[in-house]
Give the backbone structure.
Amino acid sequence: MPITIRIPPPLRKYTDGADVVEATARNLGELFEGLDQKFPGIKKVLCAADGTPQRFLNIYVNEEDIRFLGGVQYNFQDGDEVLLIPAIAGGAPGDALLSLQDGNR
Amino acid sequence: MSYTSHLRCRQCGRTYKLEPIAACEDCWAPLEVIYDYDRIRSEVPRASLASRPQTMWRYRELLPVAGEPWVGRSTGFTPLLPAPRLAQALGAREVYLKNDAVNYPTLSFKDRVVAVALSKAREFGFDTVGCSSTGNLANSVGAQAAAGGFKTFIFVPADLEPEKVINTRVYGATLIKVSGNYDQVNRLCSEISQKYSWGIVNVNLRSYYSEGSKTLGYEVAEQLGWRLPQNIVVPMAGGSLITKIHKSFTELQKLGWIEPASTKFFGAQATGCSPITTAAKNGTCEIIPQKPNTLVKSLAIGNPADGFYAAKMILESGGAGEDVSDVEVIDGIRLLAETEGLFAETAGGVTVAVARKLIRLGRLNPEESIVLAITGNGLKTVGAVSGELKASEPIRPRLAEFEEQYLNVHATASA
């Protein structure tokens, strides 16, 4: 299923700075695998070794927390938009913050 | 002068410079402000506090603000009240109320965290600040940002109590009502913080903001004569306050300001939004998010950011988590008001009702000292009790009518 994934600032070092990427996946497990093939190293930041999402990473599908949709069991639909948001979200350290400020001027 | 050295990830231990970030890049866990306790111990004797003003800033060496506070200079040091009549009603021996319902300037414990967060926002050079809020935080950010000269964006759930809306808008803040619950508001706020370089107090300033909660704990210890209570009952929304009170008690022991002692921590929630107490009651720290359905809007966070650590700490302390129905919350508000003359908001009703339930269940020892954290003022949530407290029909200005209706005295014909 083609879906879009919005990438938070701390993960953009894996995606060459892209804030939105496309992927094809039936479920979270496939999504993590697919992203890791495209952006090596990203998987270990997204999930534990057994494939469960990191405890402090919230995953939303079309604005709903994926845990209310079945979590790892959820089957993605065509056009789903996936949001990755830290449970305690926000900010970006050092240089990233400065470049954000520049971008807003 | 600041005694802070760096930020450290609570989970993996990775360290960061003192910057406006809240979560670890590797594992997303919250970041904790680290202090140089050895230096504080050698340079700041406890006795030196005695002559300082009675505000939260008397503990400034244990806060992450480098210079003078930019806002909230009069915040904190709220009363710790012995509550003998409430204790009697609960069947307990020694109960105290930590009364943040009279905190300055906006009558809730959030004034503490906002004083730190906005002082830090100033140090970081932010000119615009904001928050996502269930109400009390909105009020405090509104007031203190006005006093501090910041531009302000405040995001709240659309169904917030009208008192809390007015108490935010009056300060000139831009208040954005969002259709959805707090967790959805918070998600939007997180996205905004990723795009705009603003100081969102409970997002990218959260590591500093949450440190302000520790001052409630320092005050309780000092007001008890530099000792710890045996038990403390704390309301939980995101779960940060209870973990920070625990941190404050640990720090006081580390500094040698109090004798080593242990306190059992009891976390209180409304049953209609009880992800943390549900986990604790199941003996786990893994939080399953909920969709809130309770009149206790100030605690209605279904996906609590610090829930994992709150549940863990409660269990490790030998305490417990417990929750109560909305009916019990109203009873709790009225019990507190009628026994001690203190009108708390719904979260205070939760705390009192949970304390009563825990004593009845035998989980909270009524022979030991108990502190109840009253974190917000009843005037902000009058709607919760207004239905039950409607004034009666007026009487005519006649003595006989008053006596008949209120004293059950009936006039007799005189000779």
Observations:
- The CA atoms of residues 33 and 62 of chain B lie 10 Å apart.
- Chain B is about 35% helix and 15% strand.
- The longest strand of chain B covers residues 151-157.
